[in-house]
Amino acid sequence: MVQNVASVMAELEPEDFHLLSGVEQGMRFSEYVAREKLTDFSRLTAENVDYRLDRCADRGLVERKTIQYEGFKLTFEGYDTLALHTFAERDTIQGVGAPLGVGKESDVYEAQSYKPVALKYHREGYTNFREVMKEREYTADREHVSWLYTARKAAEREYDALETLYPDVSVPQPIDANRHAIVMEKVDGVELSRTKLEPEQVLPVLDLVLDEMQTAYHEGYVHADMSEYNVFVTSDGVVVFDWPQAVPTDHENARELLTRDVDNIVSYFARKYPQQVGDVDHDALADVLASESFESVREFLD
Ligand SMILES: Nc1ncnc2c1ncn2[C@@H]1O[C@H](COP(=O)(O)OP(=O)(O)O)[C@@H](O)[C@H]1O
Ligand SMILES: [Mg+2]
After folding, report:
1. What kind of fold does domain 6-185 have according to CATH?
2. Residue limits of the Protein kinase domain (predicted)?
3. What is the pTM for the complete model shown?
């Protein structure tokens, strides 16, 4: 069950954050951090480490395991707490509200800033990582790549793409990023997958999506995870979100991924609105998007 860590934040003391960030540092070297190492990593006395570990474990922020030694790791709630603490210190957000969405690779919450914003915690690597570690001996620590790292990289990639693309491409405005979390504009819209378009809206909306893909390509990115689940329909158009897999246009697979994106989105429209969208030559359409001469999908319909 996903826990919103915002309620735990108020109970934490500054030294609890030192402890959590000590565990975070130790996790660069091993999945579980030995208790003795935490005095160095957190710069707390051994007694204080014990006291803080209990407090953090009680709140589900660290997990204890004893195999060859007693070790601790951050849970994703513990990592969320560290990111949230940083956003609060920077005054990026003042409070966290209801969930906006739970994906398989993220948890997204509404948060309060000078306006309502979306707070996205990346979870890439968390589930996979656990499976990988189960199969390995504990001594495999040298090959250790923490899920913290995978999730942080995904957040970085998404934030970089948003910063490059906003505002020329219709994406959520990026506001701040820390660790595995990003803060962005909250979009008021309905996911394309949950929208029933009127017949006369179908081709214009598809054109809007393709137009954003064309602009993104020329600003340097292919989305690479394009689908009806990653497009919002709003009162004034469409917003394309969920960019952690974005690939730079100069990447060797970029053109191929652009065609796959076109394929995904056009096939979705063709399945859902067969009256309006018939056969489309996806390769030719992707070529035109890449060459910046896209006008309308109508030119590609039989
Ligand atoms: N900027 C945003 N504003 C409002 N809701 C959002 C925003 N970003 C994401 N969401 C919601 O959270 C869900 C998951 O976000 P998404 O970025 O697609 O992550 P995932 O990689 O898990 O699919 C979305 O389907 C959407 O409902
Ligand atoms: Mg998504």
Report:
1. Arc Repressor Mutant, subunit A (1.10.10)
2. 94-302
3. 0.93
